[in-house]
Design goal:
Blueprint: E1 25-34, E2 42-44, H1 48-56, H2 63-76, H3 84-93, E3 100-104, E4 110-112, E5 116-122, H4 130-133, H5 135-138, H6 142-164, E6 176-178, H7 187-197, H8 212-216, E7 228-229, H9 232-235, H10 243-253, E8 258-262, H11 268-276, H12 281-292, E9 297-301, H13 307-322, E10 324-326, E11 332-334, E12 338-342, H14 348-360, E13 368-372, H15 374-377, E14 387-396, E15 399-402, E16 419-423, E17 428-432, E18 442-446, E19 449-450, H16 456-465
Parallel strand pairs: 6-13, 7-8, 8-9, 9-12, 12-13
Antiparallel strand pairs: 1-5, 1-14, 2-4, 3-5, 3-18, 10-11, 14-15, 16-17, 18-19
Helix pairs in contact: 2-3, 6-7, 6-14, 10-12, 11-12, 11-13, 13-14
């Protein structure tokens, strides 16, 4: 089979819709929004340019693809159901380019829920059926948008606790690290997710994310960074009786910079006592590493246990060994360049609980770093931000008709008519297309061509622009 055959990148039932719409239909207009009831009250729109470049730009409809799809559909749905003639019309008469216009909010923009983010309509009346045929592919923008939103909200949370505990914000861009490649559903989802994370944070271990900014967003610079770190295969290499010898070997072998050490292979409390208390060889080697070059840092990573209590345990043991001082707001900061990284089983709510817990025990938030894997890559769904793609207008017999749904579940009521998005400097508002005011939505794709080719760094700057991270 042909890879990424556009004729097959849809739901099976949508292939039947071309003969279900009313006679005389010439245009179908649909939009994307995040419905009321989303987990976060804003969504950062991101990932459409990737989808367009990878799947929709150019002469993507060929006679070979149409023939293949027709043969598959004869078996899958039945003979004569696939819209063979219209697909061949696109391949032959439109040079394989999709007669579709897509408008969208600039990527990276945080938009209040219940507002239009993207609109789609056909530009050739023969292809009215194509608008919602593309829904499954286009709506996959929910995933990078939701991850971008989650990371931004975690950054907002970290920023708040750094502020209230009088902490330095120098390390804020690295306060949440992406550990999720192994937990992703595919390499494509991993790189999309982690590139969305990089809009707010600079730390990732998902290397494939580094390909997205240069390949899809015109930014050749490396946008994500990491540090040297151990895992259990390293720390358990010499067995439980020689764990500390192996830890010494790691510290002696480490290059200058940050070294992250997993400490719960056996007993994290015993490990920390040896690492932090005077008189132990591991402590001596750690001090040598810290003194070797300014900026060298050791991060201790407990990888199991109840997050709040275990984090507090680690902070208190390290304090006994290395000592602390109080900042100008009365919160404790380690005297040595050491810290704690919690990276097990995290989500937004657990990060909030840990930050609240350490604050309640007079610890500055700057002592802590987080890592998130599955919580970032696979704990989000389309329902997290309640992403929906709905038809709101149809043109037939020379007239536009408002189309909408209004079920008993009022939160699923859809919008009517053709739409535009306004921004007054503080809030977004979705209004009818003929309303006064400048439309924030931009035409990004039309008739097979990408009309806006955005830069990753510009997208990052937009995530900060609309007062996303106010000091609370």
């Amino acid at each position: 089979m042909i890879e990424n055959n556009i004729c097959l990148l849809t739901d099976s039932y949508k292939i039947t819709h071309h003969y279900f719409y009313p006679k005389g239909t010439e245009k179908i207009y649909s939009y994307l929004e995040n419905r009321t009831g989303a987990e976060f009250n804003k969504t950062i729109f991101y990932g459409l340019q990737y989808i367009l470049k990878k799947y929709l730009v150019g002469d993507i409809v060929t006679e070979e693809k149409v023939e293949e799809a027709n043969e598959i559909m004869k078996v899958h749905l039945g003979d004569g159901i696939f819209n063979y003639d219209d697909w061949m019309y696109i391949a032959r008469e439109l040079d394989g380019k999709l007669p579709i216009e897509i408008k969208a909010v600039p990527e990276g923009t945080p938009v209040n829920v219940s507002n239009v983010l993207m609109t789609v309509e056909n530009t050739d009346k023969r292809c009215f059926w194509l608008t919602n045929y593309l829904e499954p592919l286009l709506q996959q923008v929910w995933y990078p948008s939701t991850v971008a939103t989650l990371s931004a909200e975690v950054k907002k949370l970290c920023d708040f606790y750094l502020d209230v505990t009088g902490s330095s914000k120098d390390n804020l861009p690295f306060m949440l690290h992406d550990f999720g490649y192994r937990g992703a559903s595919s390499t494509e989802s991993a790189k999309l997710c982690s590139s969305a994370h990089l809009l707010s944070f600079a730390g990732t271990d998902t290397l494939v994310a580094l390909t997205v900014p240069p390949n899809y967003y015109n930014t050749p610079e490396i946008e994500g960074f990491s540090v040297q770190a151990t895992e259990h295969s390293v720390m358990t290499s010499q067995g439980p009786d020689n764990e500390l010898n192996q830890a010494i070997n790691v510290v002696r072998s480490a290059h200058d910079g940050v070294l992250s050490m997993v400490i719960d292979s056996y007993d994290y409390k015993n490990f920390l006592r040896n690492a932090c208390f005077d008189g132990y060889q591991l402590n001596s080697e750690i001090k040598k590493f810290l003194d070797r070059k300014e900026g060298n840092k050791i991060v201790f990573r407990p990888d199991s246990g109840e997050p709040v209590s275990t984090t507090l345990d680690c902070l208190e043991i390290i304090e006994k060994g290395f000592g602390t001082h109080l900042n100008n707001k009365g919160y404790k900061i380690f005297n040595a360049n050491v810290g704690v990284l919690w990276g097990d089983g995290l989500n937004y709510h657990k990060i909030r609980d840990i930050l609240f817990g350490i604050k309640a025990h007079d610890w500055a938030a700057e002592n802590l770093i987080f890592g998130m894997g599955g919580g970032l890559h696979s704990d989000v769904t389309r329902d997290t931000q309640r992403t929906a793609f709905k038809c709101s207008a149809q043109y037939r017999d020379g007239k536009w008709f408002d189309i909408f749904k209004k079920p008993l579940d009022n939160s699923k009521k859809s919008k009517k008519g053709r739409l535009k998005l306004l921004y007054d400097g503080r809030n977004f508002k979705t209004v009818p297309i003929d309303s006064p005011g400048e439309d924030i939505l931009r035409t990004v794709f039309k008739d097979g061509e990408l009309l806006i080719d955005d830069n990753f760094n510009d997208i990052k700057s937009r995530t900060m622009r609309y007062n996303l991270y106010p000091v609370q």
